[in-house]
Amino acid sequence: MRRLLQRGFSLLEVMLAITILGLVITAVTATWQAGLNGWKHTAGISENFQRERIVMGTLDDLTKSIIYAPSPDSLYDINFGHDQQTGDSVSFVTGSDMLLPHTEIMAAGLRRVTIALQRDQSNHPYLGIANSTALQPDEGAEAPVWHVLSAEVCGFGVRLRDPRDGTMVDKWDESNLLPSAIEYTVGFGANDGRTPPVVVTRTIELPIAQYALQQLGQPMAQGDTTNTTSTQPINLISSPSPENP
User: Fold this and answer.
1) pLDDT of the chain along its 245 residues, tens only?
2) Is the overall model pTM greater than 0.85, yes or no?
3) Residues contacting residue 9 through CB under 8 Å, at least 6 positions apart
4) Cα dist. 35→21, 170, 174 in Å?
5) By the 8 A CB rule, do 100 and 110 touch?
């Protein structure tokens, strides 16, 4: 009777098999992780691009719809301000109803909007918009109610083009005079030290500025309607870390 010799795996063979299996799992995991990171990066770029497009498109629509009329009370003036901590703010009367909440429908058709950086309850910065009745002096206005235009904004800068000489200025004290263009610079991102913010600049022309100058009997500077932009330095606000909200 022939004896069948049964032979098991040696310890060395078992360890070699485990090592090869570990290498295969590591390679598969690394490939999967690389693909996942690439997908997240692409999705993040697409999301950021969509956010930038919406924000800049909103600013474009509101600005191009600016309404102006000579007023002794300066009710139609463009108001510009600068804060050392939050950056610039701009306020003007617009005929656009974009982003107007239903609770403030009384301002539809003609409203004054104020755009500036604000901070939420967690001290995170966001680009906010506030609405008020257009033909109401500031002295009788109530405290503004801020709405979020974009929560992923860490910087906001504004410059205005003087229609008389075509120069860009970072302050505006003119009464009953409109700039020929408004230049917005927006820093998109959390500015948390991990991913650098993306800074976008857009210049929006105001055709109604020529009418405003005509009312004052002044000519508009030649060639100032060319849509040229230059990089404007803005203050980028850092978001608080999770450890120090």
Assistant:
1) 455 445 566 777 778 888 888 888 888 888 777 776 666 555 555 566 677 888 999 999 999 989 887 777 778 888 888 887 788 999 999 988 877 777 766 656 788 899 999 988 888 889 999 988 877 665 555 678 899 999 888 899 999 998 888 889 888 887 778 888 999 999 988 777 777 888 899 999 987 777 766 666 665 565 444 444 445 567 777 766 555 44
2) no
3) 17
4) 21, 46, 55
5) no
